[in-house]
Amino acid sequence: MNQPHGTLPEHARAIIAEEEALLSRVQETLEAARHKTGRATDTQGLVAQLQVLRDDAATAAVADLPHLLVQMTQTRALMERQEAVRLPDSQAPYFAHLRLDGEGGARDYLLGRTTFADVSAGVRVIDWRFAPIARVFYCYEEGDSYEEYFGERLAEGTVETRRLVVIERGVLTRIISGALVLERAPDGEWHSVGLDVTSLQSGGAGTAARPEFLGTGKGARRREDAFGVTALLDAEQYEAVSTGPDRPLLVLGSAGSGKTTVALHRLAKIAFDDAETFPQSRMKLIVPEEGLARLSRRLLAPLGLGKVAVQTRDSWLLQVAKQAFDLPGIKLWHDTPPLVSRFKRHPTLRRALAARVGVPKTSAGVTLERLRKRLADAYFDRHFLETVVNAARGELPRTAIDEVMEHTRLQHATPLSKELKGITDPEMLITVDGKAIEEDTPYALAGTVDLDDLPILMFLKAQHTSLGLERLAHVVLDEAEDFSLFELFVVSRLLGKGKSCTLAGDEMQQTDAGFAGWPAVLNELNIRDAATCRLQVSYRCPRPVVELARQVLGTQAPAAHDTGRPGAPVGFHHFPDEAQAQLFIGEALRDLVAREPHASVGVIASSPESAEAVFRVVADMPWSRRVSDGEFTFEPGVDVTDVGSVKGLEFDYVILPDVTARAYPVDDESRRRLHVAITRTSHQLWVVSSGVRSHLIPGAGAAAPR
Ligand SMILES: Nc1ncnc2c1ncn2[C@@H]1O[C@H](COP(=O)(O)OP(=O)(O)OP(=O)(O)O)[C@@H](O)[C@H]1O
C-alpha cells in the first residue's frame, strides 16, 4: 500500500507540486498582508485593505463577489471598532482546496477558518461557514457539475478539483484527492497510502489486528489536530448545519454519527451568518455531564466559539433557579436516592402535576419555600403518587411511592439546628470528629431541595407568573434524551418567541427509563415544526463494535443503515475471578502504553466503585488517571472511569473491565448503559468479565472468552 515518492505516478507528483506551490503562494501573500497591517497604524492598514478589496470587486467574477463583499463588510466593521485585521493562521491557513471552472474561467478556492483574499495573487481563502463556496465543497464531488446561487445570480460550472489537505506547523503533510491519499513522512518523502476517510480524524485505516492483542498502532505516533472534522462534514451533515437560524432543529442518529459535530458547526454558522442577532454571549450549550461539557468547550474553541457558555444540566438548573426565585443560593441535596430521582424525572409526573395544579388563581405565594411546601403536599399524597406510578406502565416500580414519601418526610423535617436552638454553646453542636451534629444523619436532609425538584418548582411558579429569565438567542441541548420534560419546560422559557435551538439526541443512549419520546420533547419545547435530520453514517466506531452494540441493544436496536468502517475485532476475555481480570487488564495497559504512548484509552467500569477497584492495579503509573467527576483532560494515557461519566466521549481504545451478569443484567436500561460504554470506541474494544459474564453479550462461549 505504501509507495514512496520516487515511484509515485506522474499525476500524484503533479498534485503534490501543485499543492506545495499553492501553499507557498498563500503563505507569501499572508506574510505581505501581515507586514502591511503591522507597519501601518491599524486604521491605515484597514483602509489599504479595503482599497484592495474594492479594486478586486470591480474586476471580480460572480463567484468572487460574495466573499469579497463579506470581507469588505468585516474590514469596515473592524475599522469602526479600531481593531486589527484577522488573518488566517499561516501555520494552517486552510484545510481544503476547491477549483471551480465557471463563467470567469478556472479559480482556486481554499476553505479555512478565516476569510482572506488577494485576488491579484490568485489567493482566495474562504471561511468554511461562508455559504456559496462552502456549499459547493460539501455537496459536490470532483468532476460534478454545480449550479448554485452566488448572491442573486445563478452560477454554473464544474468542480475541477476537490482535495482535503493537512497543513501542520506550516508544512503540507497530507493530501486526499478522491481515492488517492498522499502522506509526507518526517524525512520529507511523500508516500501514497490507503484510504479510510472516516478514520482520518483518529489516525488511519483499520489493520488486521487480532482480538486477543490490544493495539492497532493508532496511538504509536503523535497526532496533530490539524485535520479538523470541519473538512470532513458530509453533504447530509452540511445540509443540517445550514438549517436557517430561526428553524428549530432536531439531530438524531446512532452513537458516533456526528450529532454533536453537527450541532456545534450549526452554532458556528449561525454566529457567522448573523452575529448581531446571535451573539456568542446569548448562545448556550447545555449537556448532561461534566466530561461532555469539557469536550464541547475544546471543540468550540477552534470553531471560533470560545465565548459560548457551556454548562452541565445541573449547574444550569441551579443558576436559572436562583434567578427565577431571586435567591443567592439554594440548599441542595446531591444524594437523591436513584428511584426518587427517576420518579421526579418521569414524564408521567409532568402530566399528573399539570392536572393537579389546575388553573392558577393568584400569583401570590410563589416563593421557593411556599412552592416547596406545595410540592411536598403532592409527594405526601399517596393517591397522587399511585396515579403517577400506574401511568408509567411498569417503568416505575411501586416501591417508588414509599421512597418518595420517606425522602420528602426527611427533607421537610425540622432541621436539627432549629430543634436545638436552645443550646447556645456552639461547641456542643459539633461531634467528637469535628463534624456538624446533623452530618451523616438523616437530619442532614432537612430543609434541602433535590436538583430534580428545581425545574418542577420553576414549572409551578410559571403557572402563576413569569420566571423572569433572560432570553437566549440560541440554545443547544446535547444528549437531549436525558432532559426531563420539566427541564425542557424551563428551556422553552429561555427560548422565548424565537425558538432558535438545536437538539441532538439518540433515544438508545438514555441513561434512565422514562424518555418521553421525541414528539413529546418537541411539544414541551413548543417546536412541533422543528426540522429533523437523521444522520446515517457511523463515523466513530469500527464495524465489529457497531455490530456488538446493536446486538446488545437487542430488539430496541433501530433499523441498521450503516455498520461503520472495517476495523479490529472485539476482544472477549473471561476469568474465573475479578482479581485475575484486573491483573490481566493492568498488564495489557502497561504493554499498550509502552507501544502506543499517544493513544487515548478509556477503561469504562459499570460503576464508580468498580472503577476504583480496577484503578488500583494501575494507580502508580504516571499515565493512568482516575476520572470520577468528569474531569477528563483528553491527553494521551489511560482514563479509568465509569459508564455514568462517558456520554458523548470517545477513546482510541476502550476496555470494559466488568461485563458481568450482576453489573449488566438482562433489562433495557442495562442494555442501553452497556451500549453507551461500547460505542465510545474509535479503534478497538475489549470486553472483560469474571464470574458470570453478562448475558447481554451474545454467544457467551461462542465468542471465545478465555
Ligand atoms: N463526516 C465525518 N467524517 C469523519 N468523521 C466524522 C464526521 N462526522 C463526525 N465525525 C467524527 O465522528 C466522531 C463522532 O462524532 P460526534 O461525537 O459528533 O457523534 P455523536 O453522534 O454526537 O456521538 P454520541 O452519540 O456518542 O454522542 C467524532 O470523532 C467526529 O469528529
Query: What's the gyration radius in Å?
Result: 29 Å
The number of helices is 21
Helix/strand structural class? alpha/beta
Question: Are there runs of 5+ residues with pLDDT below 50, and where?
Answer: 196-208, 701-706
The CA-CA distance between the termini, in Å, is 35 Å
Helicity, in percent? 25-40%
Round the mean pLDDT to the nearest integer and report it. Answer: 86
Largest sheet: 10 strands, mixed
Label the overall shape: globular
Q: Work out the strand percent.
A: 15-25%
Can you tag this structure with a few keywords?
UvrD-like_helicase_C, 21 helices, globular, alpha/beta, about 700 residues, DNA_helicase_UvrD/REP, Rossmann fold, binds adenosine-5'-triphosphate, disordered C terminus, nucleotide-binding, DNA 3'-5' helicase II, ATP binding, ten-stranded mixed β-sheet, about 20% strand
Provide a descriptive summary of the structure in words.
Helix content is 36%, strand content 19%. The protein is built from 21 helices and 24 strands. It has four domains: 3-195, no CATH class; 234-320 and 471-535, Rossmann fold; 331-462, no CATH class; 543-690, Rossmann fold. The longest helix is centred in the first third of the chain and has 30 residues, at 10-39. Residues 196-208 and 701-706 have low confidence and may be disordered. Helix 21 links the parallel strand 23 and strand 24 (681-690). It is of the alpha/beta class and 706 residues long. The radius of gyration is 29 Å and the shape is globular. Strands 1, 2, 3, 4, 5, 6, 7, 8, 9 and 10 form a ten-stranded mixed β-sheet that branches. Adenosine-5'-triphosphate (ATP) binds next to helix 6. Adenosine-5'-triphosphate (ATP) binds at residues 198, 201, 229, 232-234, 237, 253, 255-261, 506, 509, 539-540, 648, 650. ATP binds at residues 253-260. Pfam families: UvrD_C_2. Keywords: ATP-binding, Helicase, Hydrolase, Nucleotide-binding. This is DNA 3'-5' helicase II. One of its GO terms (molecular function) is ATP binding.
